């Protein structure tokens, strides 16, 4: 749970344009490293992806890039037809794409991140975690769309934000995001 809370908090702050510093992300590596190959819960893998995609680095032993290793482990897990539980189904249906999308977002490949997240947004509810915990994925989706230079993606992102606002009345976050978009701050990252 510490990993989930910390990675989500750091991501939320960075989505709000607050640079939390590399050392905070690096501080989560000891929590992540033992779980790179677990693939027990897609929700956890998505949070691991949040951290690893912020750090293009090798692990402590220099055995390779942890983000690459995590993605490879997910791919192997999804490809192994002997994995038949609920998490295997979720990872095959959309979990692998969710993790990849977070990586794309953190590499500033906003159009592709938006397209991938938009294609799976209706699946977010299948993840474990509370509504508030899962909202981080909607925030990645919206911010990716607002960062795009494509007006159609911008409109879709604003529509998603409006849908979110219908569920979360008087959302200060929604108001801030719309204001930042209207002021052109997403294109000036």
Automatic annotation (TrEMBL):
Keywords: Repeat, TPR repeat. InterPro entries: TTC38. This is Uncharacterized protein.
């Amino acid at each position: 749970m510490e990993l989930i809370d910390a990675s989500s908090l750091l991501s939320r702050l960075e989505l709000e344009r607050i640079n939390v510093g590399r050392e905070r992300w690096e501080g989560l590596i000891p929590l992540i490293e033992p779980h790179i190959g677990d693939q027990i819960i897609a929700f956890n893998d998505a949070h691991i992806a949040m951290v690893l995609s912020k750090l293009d680095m090798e692990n402590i032993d220099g055995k390779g890039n942890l983000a690459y290793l995590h993605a490879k482990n997910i791919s192997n897990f999804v490809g192994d037809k002997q994995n038949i539980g609920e998490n295997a189904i979720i990872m095959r249906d959309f979990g692998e794409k969710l993790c990849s999308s977070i990586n794309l977002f953190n590499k500033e490949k906003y159009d592709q991140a938006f397209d991938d997240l938009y294609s799976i947004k209706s699946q977010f509810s299948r993840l474990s975690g509370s509504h508030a915990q899962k909202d981080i994925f909607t925030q990645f989706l919206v911010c990716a769309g607002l960062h795009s230079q494509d007006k159609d993606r911008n409109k879709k992102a604003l529509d998603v934000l409006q849908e979110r606002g219908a569920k979360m009345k008087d959302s200060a976050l929604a108001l801030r995001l719309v204001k930042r978009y209207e002021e052109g701050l997403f294109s000036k990252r």
